[in-house]
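Below is one record:
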Amino acid sequence: VRAYLMGASILVVTGLIDDLRELSPRVKFGGQFAAAAVALFLGGVKITDLGALLPEGATLPDLVAVPLTLI
């Protein structure tokens, strides 16, 4: 739960700063990337299944799942 709250806080702070000052798309993406990294590395959240795009029961290896989760 702590990782989710930390990631959400990063998004809220980035959005607040963007509302007060115009942030570049690169900085906004950096905030989203940081929030995803917190959820991934501290919370253990990652995309491992693509539903109907892969055969049933197939999971993505970490080499694919980690970058896909971050982006």
